[in-house]
TrEMBL record:
<keyword id="KW-0460">Magnesium</keyword>
<dbReference type="InterPro" id="IPR003374">
    <property type="entry name" value="ApbE-like_sf"/>
</dbReference>
<keyword id="KW-0808">Transferase</keyword>
<keyword id="KW-0274">FAD</keyword>
<dbReference type="Pfam" id="PF02424">
    <property type="entry name" value="ApbE"/>
</dbReference>
<keyword id="KW-0479">Metal-binding</keyword>
<keyword id="KW-0285">Flavoprotein</keyword>
<comment type="similarity">
    <text>Belongs to the ApbE family.</text>
</comment>
<dbReference type="GO" id="GO:0016740">
    <property type="term" value="F:transferase activity"/>
</dbReference>
<dbReference type="InterPro" id="IPR024932">
    <property type="entry name" value="ApbE"/>
</dbReference>
<protein>
    <recommendedName>
        <fullName>FAD:protein FMN transferase</fullName>
        <ecNumber>2.7.1.180</ecNumber>
    </recommendedName>
</protein>
<dbReference type="GO" id="GO:0046872">
    <property type="term" value="F:metal ion binding"/>
</dbReference>
Length: 298
């Protein structure tokens, strides 16, 4: 029997669908929800007592926030993304959002933007045996884009340990599945063509896989007479001239997240070349709303 549960987590709606015996369903769902709650309270920048919030609150004080093995592993993953993206992926860049209005138009002056850039830079984060330290007051970390897929994979591992053979965990633009559906049908996710109607989608198989989409072509912004995604460069504070969105299917949600994140921050042709070399199923939408990749709608 299929059981579904929807909750809010990391500022997004999370849906859990799994097949189990009626008497076991509530217990298994409770295990999954407990893991989501644990990770949200530990890592969410919006949870006042989380590890991330404590690091942010201690910025500029000289006080290190201790990190356990799980946190260090996550920070190591982020550092790899930072390095592979030529330092364009930077979890400290979210503070620059204040320089733009809700429509993505720059409202800060060049001087104000330059001052804000002093508070940006993953390289400024100090990671030692004592823990993590942001050196300047006002600096902020937000690791949601990496924690969310990590949480999905973690819940997937919990379900596998409980013997679940058919499940999907989906949150925002991330997902992971176990096996196929109980009737043998594939787990499917929809990708919409940017030039089609809202119902014109390409449904992709994600059975036993992870999925992530980074970027959002529907919320693109106009900047200096061109279209851009909403990713901001930690170098100059302006929109990154890469793909508007990138979707990837991989063995885990975190692997898919890593591939999509790096590709979206490369120039368009470099992103295509890099994704082709990875050999994973993918789709990218460029700034002219053209689709690329094996998952593109026919």
């Amino acid at each position: 029997m299929m059981h579904r549960k929807r909750v809010n987590c990391f500022g997004s709606s999370c849906q859990l669908a799994l097949v189990s015996l009626r008497g076991e369903a509530e217990q298994i769902v409770a295990i999954a929800l407990a893991e989501l709650e644990r990770l949200e309270s530990k890592f969410s920048a919006y949870h006042p007592d989380s590890l991330i919030s404590r690091i942010n609150q201690a910025a500029g004080t000289g006080c290190y926030t201790p990190l356990d093995a799980e946190a260090r592993s996550l920070f190591d993953f982020v550092t790899v993304l930072w390095e592979e993206s030529s330092h364009l992926f930077d979890p400290t860049v979210s503070i620059l959002d204040h320089c733009y209005d809700e429509h993505g138009q720059l409202k800060a002056t060049d001087s104000q933007l330059k001052d804000m850039l002093k508070l940006v830079g993953w390289s400024q984060l100090q990671l030692t045996d004592e823990g993590a330290l942001l050196p300047t007051k006002g600096m902020l970390l937000d690791l949601t884009s990496c924690i969310r897929p990590y949480a999905i994979d973690s819940v997937r591992r919990k379900l596998l340990k409980e013997g679940v053979q058919h499940a999907m965990i989906e949150m925002a633009h991330d997902a992971a599945t176990i096996g196929k559906q109980a009737d043998g049908a594939n787990w499917l996710l929809g990708l919409r063509h940017p030039m089609g109607s809202r119902t014109a989608i390409n449904r992709i198989k994600v059975s036993g896989k992870g999925f992530a989409m980074r970027g959002d072509f529907e919320r693109r912004i106009g900047f200096r007479d061109e279209h851009f995604g909403r990713g901001l460069s930690p170098v100059d504070g302006y929109p990154v001239p890469g793909m508007l969105s990138v979707s990837v299917v991989a063995d885990s949600c975190l692997d898919a997240c890593g591939a999509a994140t790096i590709a979206r921050l490369k120039t368009e042709q470099a992103a295509i070349n890099w994704l082709q070399k990875l050999g994973l199923p993918w789709m990218a939408i460029d700034r002219q709303l053209r689709c690329h990749g094996p998952l593109s709608p026919a």
